[in-house]
Amino acid sequence: MSIDLRSDTVTRPSDTMREAAAAAAVGDDVYGEDPTVNELEAAAADRVGLPDAMYVPTGTMGNQIAAHVHADRGEEVVLDRMAHIYDWELGGLAQLSGLQTRPVDAVDAVLTPEQIDAAYVEESLHRPGTGLIALENTHNARGGVAVPPESISAAADAAHDRGVPVHLDGARLFNACVALDVDPARMTRDVDSVLFCLSKGLGAPVGSILAGDEEFIADARRVRKLFGGGMRQAGLIAAPGLLALENVDRLAEDHENAARFAAGLDEIDGLRVSDPDTNIVQVYTDELGVDAETFEAVCAEHGVLGGEHGDYLTRFCTHLDVTREDVEAAVDRIENAVDDLRD
Ligand SMILES: *Cc1c(COP(=O)(O)O)cnc(C)c1O
User: Fold this and answer.
1) Atom 4, ligand 1: which residue's CA is nearest?
2) Is residue 343 scored above 90 in pLDDT?
3) pLDDT given at position 245
4) pLDDT-above-90 percentage for the chain
5) 20 to 30 Å CA-CA from 71: which of 94, 130, 176, 263?
6) How far is the CA of 343 from the centre of ligand 1 (A)?
């Protein structure tokens, strides 16, 4: 059996999650009448220390709703050039909200106050004005980097000094919080909205949470409807989401497994391996002279699945469905794969 490290989205719902789904009390959530969705939204808001929250089908939809609510058509969004919301969401900011992006190169995976000051544009006859600052934690494409809350707050303060709201793409917010031993409420303290995924390391089959204040969430509910995300008896999929919130602390295991996996791979000649903060390990194969597409294919033949994330960059994620033994076996298999590639 292949060890699937392509993403932490590949986790399968547990039997308990399936039972909870089958037994869930439901109603029409567009009418606000699904008790399970309401319970999940309340629990999720509480978990991230924000006043209100809304269940959305995907992280992408949550990010795009947030941008649509915060910024006006034609305004600019300042973000890292490797941010998911910019680089991996089909240009949704432009397509769905008519927003122009102003990408900058994040330092240590977060925008600095200086970068925000420099990128800010004042609305004028010639310029649209900055409508949103978007941050990401953990930072996926930069290797699952856990950004400390002080850096998030510093960026948020700089944005707020200019009167610009801040959205935090925290698809893996809890990975950051567990890695840094920070209360999620501290991490979100100075931002205006946060998105987190239930469907990644937390193990739910479907869904994400967008949180913010009551006024933001009231607007967000209209935009969710606009984007086609108003669901009906969604309690069936929200029930496993409630159980997923119990999987926060165990993310530490994924981080330990990632560290062990990275240390093992680092011993293999020719591989350059990132030092993971959380559950994402980046492997560069340029020194081996093998591109990521080939590396990924040969690893797959040897029973380890990773994902191509650049010409010479392959990403591996640990998650709920892989054990310590799995990552150790994965190292051995990749070692064999590299031997094959050298022949
Ligand atoms: C996965 C991810 C998303 C989007 O989540 P989906 O549920 O796959 O749409 C957004 N941001 C980051 C950083 C992610 O890793």
Assistant:
1) 59
2) no
3) 98
4) 99
5) 176
6) 38
Is the pTM above the cut of 0.85?
Answer: yes
Residue 47, ligand 1, Cβ within 6 A: no
pLDDT tier for residue 168 given thresholds of 50, 70 and 90 = very high
Residue 244 has a pLDDT of: 98
Q: Does 175 sit in the ligand 1 pocket, CB within 6 Å?
A: no
Question: Is the CB–ligand 1 distance for residue 197 below 6 Å?
Answer: yes
169 CB within 6 A, ligand 1? yes
* Residues 209-222, mean pLDDT to the nearest whole number: 98
By CB atoms closer than 10 A (0-12, 13-18, 19+), residue 274 is buried
Q: Whose CA is nearest to atom 6 of ligand 1?
A: 59
Q: Are the C-beta atoms of residues 315 and 262 closer than 8 Å to each other?
A: no
- Over residues 85-101, the mean pLDDT reads 98
Kindly state the average pLDDT of the residues 260-275. 97
SS3 string, the chain, reads: CCEECCCHHHCCCCHHHHHHHHHCCCCCHHHCCCHHHHHHHHHHHHHHCCCEEEEECCHHHHHHHHHHHHCCCCCEEEEECCCHHHHCCCCHHHHHHCCEEEEECCECCECCHHHHHHHCCCCCCCCCCEEEEEEECCECCCCCECCCHHHHHHHHHHHHHCCCCEEEECCCHHHHHHHHCCCHHHHCCCCCEEEEECCCCCCCCCCEEEEECHHHHHHHHHHHHHCCCCCCCCHHHHHHHHHHHHHCCCHHHHHHHHHHHHHHHHCCCCCEECCCCCCEEEEECCCCCCCHHHHHHHHHHCCEECEEEECCEEEEECCCCCCHHHHHHHHHHHHHHHHHHHC
